[in-house]
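Notes from the 1:1 (GR / supervisor)

We went over the backlog. Supervisor wanted to see one worked example end to end before approving the batch request, so GR pasted a single chain during the call. The sequence is below; no edits were made to it. Supervisor asked that the structure be written out right there so they could see what the output format looks like.
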Amino acid sequence: QLQLVESGGGLVEPGGSLRLSCAASNFTLSYYRIGWFRQAPGKEREGVSCISSSGGTTKYSDSVKGRFTISRDIAKNTVYLQMNSLKPEDTAVYYCAARLAVLDHNGSTCPRDLMNYWGKGTLVTVSS
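Structure output shown during the call:
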């Protein structure tokens, strides 16, 4: 079965950094667009970043642009989210999700309601 497993979350102080990992199993990243999303208590799940199935195109929400970087290691079938200059408002459960993209390997949009597969999330808490 297709599976995504997030890891790397934890407690960090404002201004600190974390790198989240999204390990994919039973499918190859080469045919899937991967997005990172986050959800804070009482709020809707929102898109954070997205990477094309080719790995060559990325997109970021305005709130994280310049601070977060999405990347992938095709050999390890893993997508990463490097988070720098973390703020308390970044506190949330972070999820990765996949969307089949066999006809558009350069597209980098990850609409929340169109993602096909989801991980269970990893908690990131930014607090002093």
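Supervisor's comment: The chain has no helices and eleven strands.
Batch request approved.
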